[in-house]
Write a structure and sequence with these properties.
Blueprint: H1 2-13, H2 20-37, H3 42-49, H4 53-60, H5 68-77, H6 82-106, H7 109-121
Length: 128
């Protein structure tokens, strides 16, 4: 179980990163899809999110990198509270790390040495 927890943590950290340009483009498309699902016009979302129409248009078209707070306002206007997702994710990760720490403290010394040796030999590779 402990080994599975460590591998899960490692896999979480090794996800491939996309470029900033690709991220901004995908984010814009995602916002547009959410807006369309809600049947909001861009003007309506602009009003509800208190975001300038031209800025929102640029964000949806991948031409502008929004601030974190602007994203928060846009998602909140779309009935998505992204702060809840942060809290849940942080709790899960903190719980996982806390469980690992507790198990490491009670692990017999010889098992702990074997685990350290295994981790030293373990190679981290990126997923394709």
């Amino acid at each position: 179980m402990l080994f599975y927890c460590i591998l899960t943590t490692i896999n979480f950290m090794e996800k491939a990163m996309i470029s900033e340009t690709d991220f901004i483009g995908k984010l814009g498309l995602y916002i547009r899809r959410l807006r369309s699902k809600k049947k909001y016009s861009i003007e309506k979302l602009s009003e509800y999110s208190e975001t300038d129409y031209s800025s929102l248009n640029k964000i949806e078209n991948g031409k502008q990198n929004p601030t974190a707070y602007t994203l928060y306002k846009i998602f909140l206007a779309l009935d998505i509270d992204i702060t809840q997702k942060f809290e849940k994710q942080n709790v899960k990760q903190d719980d996982l790390l806390q469980k690992i720490a507790i198990k490491l403290k009670v692990l017999p010394q010889e098992n702990l040495k074997a685990l350290y040796q295994l981790l030293d030999e373990f190679e981290i590779t990126k997923r394709n």
